[in-house]
Amino acid sequence: MTLISFVVPAFKVQGYLRECLDSILDQPFDDLEVIGIDDASPDGSGEILDEYAARDPRVHPVRLVENVGLGPARNIGLDRAVGEYVWFVDGDDWLVAGCLPHVAARLRATRPDVLVVDHVRAHWNNAGTRSAMRDVFPEPPGEATFGLRDRPETLRLLHTAWNRLVRREFLVEQGLRFEPGWYEDVSFSYPALMAAERIGVLDRVCLNYRQRRTGAITRTRGDRHFEVFAQWHRVFRLMDRWGPAVAELRPAVFERMIWHYLTVLGNGERIAAGLRPPFFAQIHADYVRFLPPEGYPVPPGLEGVKHRLVAAGRWRTFSALRAAHQVEEQARHTARRVRRRVLPVARRTARGARDAALREYYRAELHRPLDPTLAVYAAYWYRGYSCNPAAIYTAARRLVPQVRGVWIVRRDRVAVLPPGVEYVVAGTRDYYRVLARARWLVNNVNFPDFVRKRPGSVHVQTHHGTPVKVMGLDQQRYPVGAVGMDFTKLLHRVDRWDYSVSANSFSTQMWERAYPADYTTLEVGYPRNDRLALATAEECRQVRAALGIGPDEYVVLYAPTHREHLPGWQPPFDPDRMRDVLGPSGRLLMRSHYFHDRERQLRGASDGAVLDVSTYDRVEDLYLVADVLVTDYSSAMFDYAVLDRPIVVYAPDWEAYRVARGVYFDLLAEPPGAVAVDFPGLLDVFRGGAVRGAEAEQARQRFRARFCALDDGHAAERVVRRVFLNEPA
């Protein structure tokens, strides 16, 4: 028999589901199964479950045709489980690495009905908040199992399904199921503890409980929070049915009920002001209805005052007490904020004064009406005209000629703009004016922090590559590659986005996880790849001729990415030895990352057969002339794959890179072609023909199916029609 069945419901968790599944399947423990329930999720959650099932027989996906909700979805997983124990893990949470051997050892040693494990709340800012385990059990409870009557304080542990493993036969014998509706854990977890003869507690953090910035029920306002009452009513009906067997537990359960009600009421992100009085009235009604004859342990201090006000039904006094507490907290917050802002005022330089004057001009322009015909474009921190914004600009000129497109560029990059492209120079008066008054703002990175999101303006984030390395909030776990990043300010910038352009479902999932906010995703392909998808053989010949490359030359483009954690480092690469392997018809093009535009020259790129193309602005031209791309962890591989030409992954520092910088998938296990992990191996790939071998061809086709399916040459048009013309997706 399988020891543990994981039941993982999935609904709108595509950005987190991979991390959840990996955290289970990558454990040093195999005696498990994963039953993934796609609860008719409108995103890519179901496809992710199918993908994992295709490569791991322990994963069993279930696709529901209509949404049933978290509780019923868990019941469906329970009915299909074969494990001795069931662990209900939500699709946006994840296990702690290496925890399962300890969990399994405790299960096998003590055979509990319920084993409660510890957890931490994992916040979006990478902070972790410990659970109440140490407060409930100041002394570790040890390995011995117990009944709830012996340790009633166990009820004070968080009443969720995901922080405990439950013996499957025990659930069947007791007939315990999840009820529909919100707060479904209540009517499952408390009865399970009351019915269990053997409860175990593992004093080890085993699960990360994700505190989502957006999309969580606990951050959703509405009247559905009133469903908490029905769940607690079920608990007390069950206790009435069980009678004397659980009578002595009634005071402790009652105290937990009132605590839970007050927790929900006190959360301003759940109960709107207009719903607070009726919610409080229902708390009072339940207090009167379920109060044990012998009373219950009223908590001390302020919490006890709240309980007494509930007992008396005194809403106005309760509300006034809460308001006074909020005023006190706000005063403390204001004092801290003032202390932080006093010091920088005295540090103005002459340039700072000029910048301050321009910012004042910007703020004044914000009071003028938006220009309904103005669209502002930028790319790569104002480095020039390129990438997805350039493709959208071109499509907009054709489809919405009444819209005036203006580019923002650095002064030293003005010369690279195509003829006829209107522009402003960053930092000038015109720059601040167009930023303040543009109806549309399109960028492949973020605009500066001072830029405000005006009502009626539309911000489009196009991104600039399908992510291999971790991005956004995920970089908090890899601080070596996130030096100097301010994640609070990052989220302020992300909150300005109205649209996020995505090249494929994988990117959509990772952007939702890395940049949690309320933008609309446009999963349409990458506009910059339209040219690659529509390129003809004649265009490729013309570009080759313009670059001085003959039609019969064999061209290899080498484009390594930047290492944030190793500034200036370049992978070991000998152009002369590579040129020798390519032969007399070979031409090697070498291109550094755009972060190195102040230090463009690559080592060894010196003669006609080896050409440094780092300063060449139109990277799409280089893709069109290349017969083979050699890269490491660059998003260039996703773009070049649109051409369906050979790609070689040269990853000499893969293990160090994935540990220091973090990656979203195993590039060596799912490559777009042949792989080399050292320079001699790279030479062998070309020398032995593996670059075009059957294995490399199959890998590329799998890669293209996963990442390039939407790149059909019309991505920019789809963005323009949705963003500028407001046509349905």
UniProtKB/TrEMBL annotation:
<keyword id="KW-0472">Membrane</keyword>
<keyword id="KW-0777">Teichoic acid biosynthesis</keyword>
<dbReference type="InterPro" id="IPR029044">
    <property type="entry name" value="Nucleotide-diphossugar_trans"/>
</dbReference>
<dbReference type="InterPro" id="IPR051612">
    <property type="entry name" value="Teichoic_Acid_Biosynth"/>
</dbReference>
<keyword id="KW-0808">Transferase</keyword>
<feature type="domain" description="Glycosyltransferase 2-like">
    <location>
        <begin position="5"/>
        <end position="148"/>
    </location>
</feature>
<protein>
    <submittedName>
        <fullName>Bifunctional glycosyltransferase family 2 protein/CDP-glycerol:glycerophosphate glycerophosphotransferase</fullName>
    </submittedName>
</protein>
<keyword id="KW-1003">Cell membrane</keyword>
<dbReference type="InterPro" id="IPR043149">
    <property type="entry name" value="TagF_N"/>
</dbReference>
<comment type="similarity">
    <text>Belongs to the CDP-glycerol glycerophosphotransferase family.</text>
</comment>
<dbReference type="InterPro" id="IPR043148">
    <property type="entry name" value="TagF_C"/>
</dbReference>
<dbReference type="InterPro" id="IPR007554">
    <property type="entry name" value="Glycerophosphate_synth"/>
</dbReference>
<dbReference type="InterPro" id="IPR001173">
    <property type="entry name" value="Glyco_trans_2-like"/>
</dbReference>
<dbReference type="Pfam" id="PF00535">
    <property type="entry name" value="Glycos_transf_2"/>
</dbReference>
<dbReference type="Pfam" id="PF04464">
    <property type="entry name" value="Glyphos_transf"/>
</dbReference>
